[in-house]
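Ticket #4471: structure export looks truncated?
Reporter: QA, pipeline team
Priority: medium

Steps to reproduce: submit the single chain below to the structure queue and open the exported record.
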Amino acid sequence: MNVNKINKSSDFIKTLNGINTSDTPIWLMRQAGRYLPEYRKIRKEAGSFLNLCMNPKLSAEVTLQPLERFDLDAAIIFSDILTIPMACNRDLKFIENEGPSLKPIEKESEIFDLQLKNNSVLEPVYECLNIVKSQLNPDKSLIGFAGGPFTIAAYMIEGRGSNDFSKCVSFFNNYEKTFLKLLKKLEIFISNHLIKQIEAGAEAVQIFESHARIAAQKNKFREFCIEPNNNIIKNIKKKYPHIPIIGFPRNVDALYPDYVKNVNIDCLSVDQNINIKKLLDNLIINKGRNICFQGNLDPEILLHGGNNLINSTKNILEKFSSVNHIFNLGHGVIKETPVKNIDLLIKTIREWKK
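Actual output as written to the record:
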């Protein structure tokens, strides 16, 4: 793909580039997923989540499903952040109702020897992007993504998802220099992965630093999240300066402004727990950069719907009305969410005027 052929007239890209639009763009994290009956049908056909991710034709189909049903502004490629460890030949499987499980890193030597050897694991992502780009309506945008280095490292050491990632914390407390070496390697792998996604058709990319909270709680947010994320962005911008980049260091609360000031993102995605007014006031007082914001409806509110959904949506739109804003959730769509609630959310956003 010619990466200069980006739909600069779409509200999504305009907003990312700091241009005011009359309508607020919207897309949803996990907008392609188990809450959709058409997704469940394809998932059954694929046989497993990983099979679905590794099949470009089927993953392209599920990427496009939400846009065929809803008036969304962007598609996000259907993949998983743990394709990077897979490409490093770390065994990965997804256990039903439990989530990812991979062979954990237990020794420093495993980090010293770590290489991204299996590019065939990542090729389906780029093929999927090519397919989606060729079929996507021209007024819609296409988003690529990757996990942040800290989040991927946490999974690689823990071996699975966790509330406290105690194994990972113990590892970086005991072997911080080696842990930083792991982050540095992941920086390179992730940078290259995102660049290839851009070359395959992504018009914007998002870095999911989903477990940044763990680093923040241990006073390692700058070393483990800010610096690696900014290095990835430098690598991308060096080659494709016009591609907007969204950063999502989830659940870091008071440290969001620090991230904005020190990471060269075009847009900050925030979770549902943040105080929007306090965040914006902090950035104005401290002369933070003029960037776009994304978020931050609680997925539980979307799950339950009704008047609370309408009022909460309007409240978020109002609070972000003074800045460039893309509507999204504070995390992914919950699998039990009724489709009618997505319809109600989008209707509320489309009827609201800045």
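Status: closed, not a bug. The export was complete when the record was re-opened. Leaving a note from the reviewer for reference: Residues 11-351 form a domain with the TIM Barrel fold (CATH 3.20.20.210).
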